[in-house]
């Protein structure tokens, strides 16, 4: 059985339909990429999967690891192993980065029936993951995302992902606003976290990121529908031809 | 000082009651003070009689109706409470790990047996203002009432008329007082209407440094009225940090002025943390009397149920090249009300003034309200003045971000609310005080959030 099964998902905001019947199946051990132009519904899909209530699901269902995902609160989805790396990570002044992450980590552990870790053990874990993402210590002592550069924010997202160790990671335009070094670090981090028992959904505008995070499947999202699916070579084709040639395609 | 007249002019009943109380006070408690103080008091009561209690028709009292104060049978606490407090009663109001001197005042009266005064540097004076009016008469006379004007505000006039005691802190030229001084004011009202009028005088001479904590708490069985005035004279190049914590019982009334006068190249940092009382009104006024002053006023107010908390600031840039920064955060739950009014004057010739004012308010409920008003009056052209005020709810994007990481809705709300408070508390430079207030606010705000969630 697939880790994530999206069936005919329709969702919108304030009466405006954005997702118009998405079907997608992701198995463990797979990396799927969703590509599409601005306004095609990529970010809406990621927010709906993470539980953002701003978007109303009008029909369809999402089965995740045997659970009816749409019935779960955002924090319950996180406990079950879903992680969304935000396109625009929120700046939260006054909440210390390490304090926040320890609280989140212990919530996830609590749900798994594991004991909470103390500050010492957590620090050891953090140190290890910091190396992976080339995160500087001072970033950990600062308020969450406050005053972080674009690159620091994205590194911090993947760093959180490394600590929380999700089953399904959703990366929403993680490459946007990154210089080449940061992009490489972030992709490196994601690749090191790839395992046969987890999966990733990489949402991107450009093919560039997929040179570093090589997907098993590529899907094209256009006007709220997946209009084409293929292997990693589809990304190259899109890079070359753009999205226009797919406009008339029937949905998959 | 003007010649005193007998305050016999008839006025409203609430004013008459205060005049009668003053008559009794003159016959009894006020006798032990020197003649010049008696004169000062008479100008105070005369001024009060002329002003009367403020009404919401006055711009400065538009949102704060003090009728509940004026209508109660307030009796000046001429003597300290009859209930004997022990060191154990007082210990819970101390700041753990603070060290240094702690002066305890019960209903505005210095209480030596509950106080500790640590070894002081040469020339530093620290103790009861009432005692100092005899022992250091010249010093007190030189400063008392010189900074906080009783002319334009009835409660300050009332304080001048009725003050019994308070703290005198004097730091001579160039002396650095390492350990912070804690002034602890305990309201111990056993009948409604007990009024304390504490009066504090802090004089930091040129090049000196001191940190002072002024906290207000309640014991006893009835609501009291605190009407405090603190005057702070900061000399040339001196550095004073003042931290006030108002945590009186929720049915108490608290009106206070902190007036500072800042000489050339001095630094003054003020923190006003206000969480208690039914009506709390803080006037925090500061005048730059020389160039190159750096003044920071921080504030955090938290209110719930039907509490009202009001901060009125006047920052008077009377001289050029001074900087003032005001950072105030309010967290309002229940049907509480917050008031923020920040006046900044930039006087003619006060060029290169850098004045910044920020007031942010977090409303936890639909019934909570806040009135926030910046007032800038600028009479110089080469200045930088900015102000900003916000009133809003917790940021839904931030809540979702935290929840998406596994933090429950309530916990996320609590975390963000506490962070909003910590932003201000983090500015307190007296670590044990910052830490303890942070812990106190964590628990108080946790309770607020639980109350909102039902």
Can you lay out the helices and strands and say which pair or pack?
The complex is a heterodimer of chains A (252) and B (454).
Chain A: E1 4-13, E2 16-26, E3 31-35, H1 42-50, E4 56-64, E5 67-68, H2 74-79, E6 82-85, H3 97-111, H4 119-133, H5 137-141, H6 150-164, E7 168-172, H7 180-193, E8 199-204, H8 208-212, E9 217-222, E10 225-230, H9 233-241
Parallel strand pairs in A: 3-8, 3-9, 6-7, 7-8
Antiparallel strand pairs in A: 1-2, 1-4, 4-5, 9-10
Helix pairs in contact in A: 4-6, 6-7
Chain B: H1 13-27, H2 35-51, H3 67-70, E1 75-76, H4 87-91, E2 102-106, E3 109-110, E4 125-128, H5 129-135, H6 137-143, H7 154-162, E5 167-171, E6 181-189, E7 194-196, E8 199-204, E9 209-220, E10 224-234, E11 239-247, E12 253-262, E13 267-274, E14 279-288, E15 294-303, E16 308-317, E17 323-332, E18 337-346, E19 354-363, E20 369-378, E21 384-392, H8 396-403, H9 409-425, H10 431-453
Parallel strand pairs in B: 1-7, 2-6, 5-8, 6-9, 7-10, 8-10, 9-11, 10-12, 11-13, 12-14, 13-15, 14-16, 15-17, 16-18, 17-19, 18-20, 19-21
Antiparallel strand pairs in B: 2-3, 4-5
